[in-house]
């Protein structure tokens, strides 16, 4: 083998259908990780497959300075779906690129350097996004990173207000912390961030890379708080497994965004996939399904014989804080019960299934959790 970045699991995948994956040995797995929330409409969704196939037959790639119908349609779709007037769209290839762009745009638009981010927060692995990512194990091997970052406790309104001043370019927040253990923002926290940034003339950036496109029961998790940011970043599930990220901005950010670019910004094939994915989420009411099935899953996990300290989350973004190592449980779930899930730190089992799952799928996941804890 020549790969060296990822530690490969002892399961080779060969096919997928809906919320199920099939291994090379024929074993069928319930995918309750969705490869880090990347397949919200499930594996092999015909609408996405047809859109990609059609676009491939017409045009695989042309650089973003040449208009193409698929990209233009996605620009318009994202502008319509964005919260409030956050309707200027920059397309890239991943969440970390979307956050890098947001960081650059905010610094350019404000003429300031300081970025306020949160402890336990995760914004990506490239050098700028990594600088805003709190966990030492991600940062240490690559330091020195970009400067001007100040970390505050997530959920602490007073600490956030104190940190945001007239030197602040932006505040970066996840409406629900993902890698940080599936921690929803406390009531009033996002509103406090909005007030603090407006008073200081800083940009408020919501990182919805993991929480967006219906994952938490609404199209955007920040909608629950009724707060409109200056910048919203999204990726992961936006193109149902194809690499795409987006940075959505208010006009005052976009007008002074500075010089930025990307060779593969908004390739036609991934744009076609994203438009089909977003349309499927809307037409099939998948955010509402995430809300219903997610609430049921949380209730069943709390009532089950599961050795857990806490079950928390929104929609189908759920964390089970367990009393022993999460990685051992994840191994047992996969190898003994054919259920795939994810860690969120050392003690949290994370469920991010396709938004198409039903109660029977939830029951299967709960039964597997009872068996391994």
What do you see in this structure?
The protein has 373 residues and is an alpha/beta fold. It folds into two domains: 13-44 and 285-372, Aspartate Aminotransferase, domain 1 (Alpha-Beta Complex); 46-283, Aspartate Aminotransferase, domain 2 (3-Layer(aba) Sandwich). It is 37% helix and 19% strand. It contains 13 helices and 17 strands. It has helices spanning 34-37, 46-58, 69-81, 95-110, 127-131, 136-139, 157-163, 189-200, 251-254, 268-283, 286-303, 326-337, 359-372, and strands spanning 13-17, 20-23, 28-31, 88-92, 114-118, 149-152, 168-173, 176-177, 183-184, 203-207, 231-234, 245-249, 308-314, 317-322, 339-340, 342-343, 348-351. The strands form four sheets. The chain has a seven-stranded mixed sheet with strand order 4-12-11-10-7-5-6, sandwiched between helices. A hairpin with a 2-residue loop joins strand 13 (308-314) and strand 14 (317-322). It is globular, with a radius of gyration of 20 Å. The chain starts with 12 loop residues before the first strand and ends with a helix. The model has no long low-confidence stretch (mean pLDDT 96).
């Amino acid at each position: 083998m020549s790969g060296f970045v990822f530690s490969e699991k002892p399961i080779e995948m060969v096919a997928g259908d809906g919320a199920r994956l099939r291994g090379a040995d024929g074993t069928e797995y319930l995918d309750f990780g969705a490869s880090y929330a990347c397949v919200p409409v499930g594996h092999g969704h015909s609408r996405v497959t047809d859109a990609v196939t059609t676009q491939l037959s017409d045009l695989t790639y042309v650089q973003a300075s040449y208009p193409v119908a698929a990209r233009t349609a996605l620009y318009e779709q994202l502008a319509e779906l964005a919260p409030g007037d956050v309707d200027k769209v920059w397309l890239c290839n991943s969440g970390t690129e979307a956050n890098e762009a947001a960081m650059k745009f905010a610094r350019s638009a404000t003429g300031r350097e300081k970025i306020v981010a949160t402890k336990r927060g995760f914004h990506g692995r490239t050098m700028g996004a990594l600088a805003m990512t709190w966990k030492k194990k991600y940062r240490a091997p690559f330091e020195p990173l970009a400067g001007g970052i100040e970390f505050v406790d997530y959920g602490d309104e007073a600490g956030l207000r104190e940190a945001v001043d007239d030197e602040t370019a932006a505040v970066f927040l996840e409406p629900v912390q993902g890698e940080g253990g599936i921690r929803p923002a406390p009531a009033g926290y996002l509103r406090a961030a909005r007030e603090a940034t407006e008073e200081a003339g800083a940009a408020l950036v919501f990182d919805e890379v993991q929480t967006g496109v219906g994952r938490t029961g609404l199209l955007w998790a920040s909608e629950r708080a009724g707060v409109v940011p200056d910048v919203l970043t999204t990726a992961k599930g936006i193109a149902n497994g194809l690499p795409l990220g987006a940075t959505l901005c208010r006009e005052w950010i976009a007008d002074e965004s500075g010089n930025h670019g990307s060779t593969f910004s908004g390739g036609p094939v991934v744009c076609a996939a994203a438009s089909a994915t977003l349309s499927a989420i809307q037409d099939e009411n998948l955010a509402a399904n995430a809300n219903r099935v997610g609430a049921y899953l949380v209730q069943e996990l709390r009532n089950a014989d599961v050795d857990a300290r806490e079950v928390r989350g929104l929609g189908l973004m759920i964390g089970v804080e367990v009393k022993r190592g999460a990685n051992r449980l994840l191994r047992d779930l996969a190898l003994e019960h054919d259920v795939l899930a994810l860690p969120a730190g050392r003690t949290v089992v994370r469920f991010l299934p396709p938004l198409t799952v039903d109660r029977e799928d939830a029951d299967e996941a709960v039964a597997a959790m009872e068996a391994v804890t």
